[in-house]
Design a protein that fits this description.
The protein has a domain at 21-153. It has 8 helices and 15 strands. With 321 residues, the chain is α+β, with helices and mostly antiparallel strands. A hairpin with a 2-residue loop joins strand 4 and strand 5.
């Protein structure tokens, strides 16, 4: 399920830009922030894969319709805290949370529902547009930050300003101050070490994926770029269009595809690089002979040729609205 984010890129400039006010609930100690324009992303090829990472086998978000129908999602870690922004009337939120068997509590005037299972994520409603998801401790800390009235005492993650450059016109983005990282590596298939990563994906008109990997030295950047180019040469279809550059201690990757190129790639049934095929059976059993995909079968894009193994990108049913 993981690693659908692929290769990404934008220079790590530490740009100082304004961010939405509701981002300030994010963990001050955050070393990674993941953001999604969920309203656009869920209708794209990559929506199902992102939603899977929020599910039971991923971050294990509570199963709430208000999350599924949200407009934007921001996730900060460590001290995992997610902010879900959209429209969720309190009566609907309470009904959905109550059906999960959560226990209602109030903290500083904020209604929250606490999961009964130890280690499970809980949820709080700041207002009809904003939910917080995390442990009891991270939710309480987020509420404390949000209610801080003295500007001199307010503290924000330094990653927020860097992340703000992505908030207006991208569908999915990641900002991390190091790799590997538990949250970032759910979406980024890069196993090497780095002291910074910025990347985004946009699937509104075709596909654009951009990323910058900040290495520890110019020499390390050269080695990393060479390694990535060797892997790219093993791919076909859209994969071969990934452009890799290195300058100083940074390695940048870029991929752009028109809607026609993306559709053609998804239709490609070649065994190497990009392949669309139904996933059936259980791990360890032989794959059945190719057949015409049925509407009730889960489909994936499978990218092979990477050191860490094949990448599978779950696809939405093209007839799904």
């Amino acid at each position: 399920m993981r690693h659908f984010f692929g290769f990404l890129m934008l220079p790590i400039l530490g740009l100082s830009q304004s961010h939405p006010s509701w981002w300030t609930y994010a963990s001050v100690e955050a070393r990674t922030i993941v953001g999604a324009d969920w309203k656009n992303l869920r209708a794209s090829t990559f929506g199902a894969a992102f939603q899977a990472e929020l599910g039971p086998d991923g971050l294990a978000f509570p199963r709430l319709g208000c999350i599924d129908d949200a407009d934007q999602i921001l996730i900060s870690a460590p001290g995992l805290l997610a902010m879900v922004y959209g429209q969720c009337p309190p009566a609907i939120f309470d009904a959905q949370a109550g059906r999960l068997g959560f226990s209602p509590v109030t903290y500083k005037g904020v209604n929250a529902w606490i999961a009964k299972d130890s280690g499970a994520l809980s949820v709080a409603q700041i207002n009809k547009q904003l939910l917080l998801i995390g442990s009891q401790e991270t939710i309480a800390a987020g509420i404390d930050r949000g209610q801080e009235t003295e500007a001199s005492k307010r503290k924000y993650s330094p990653l927020l300003a860097r992340a703000a450059q992505f908030s207006h016109d991208t569908d999915l983005w990641i900002v991390a101050d190091r790799l590997p990282d538990d949250l970032a590596n759910r979406f980024v298939p890069l196993t090497m070490k780095a002291r910074g990563f910025d990347g985004y994906l946009t699937a509104r008109e075709g596909l654009m994926m951009n990323a910058t990997l900040l290495t520890n030295s110019n020499e390390e950047a050269l080695v990393t770029a060479k390694h990535l180019r060797e892997q790219i040469r093993k791919l076909s279809g859209l994969g071969r269009g990934i452009q890799i550059q290195n300058e100083g201690d940074q390695v940048t990757l870029r991929l752009a595809a028109t809607p026609e190129e993306l559709r053609a790639s998804l239709r490609d049934t070649a065994p190497e690089a990009v392949r669309v095929s139904p996933v059936v059976g259980t791990p360890g059993t032989p794959e059945p002979a190719p057949e015409t995909p049925k509407s009730n079968q889960r489909q994936v894009i499978r990218i092979v040729g990477l050191d860490e193994g094949p990448i599978e990108i779950p696809l939405l049913d093209p007839t799904h609205k």
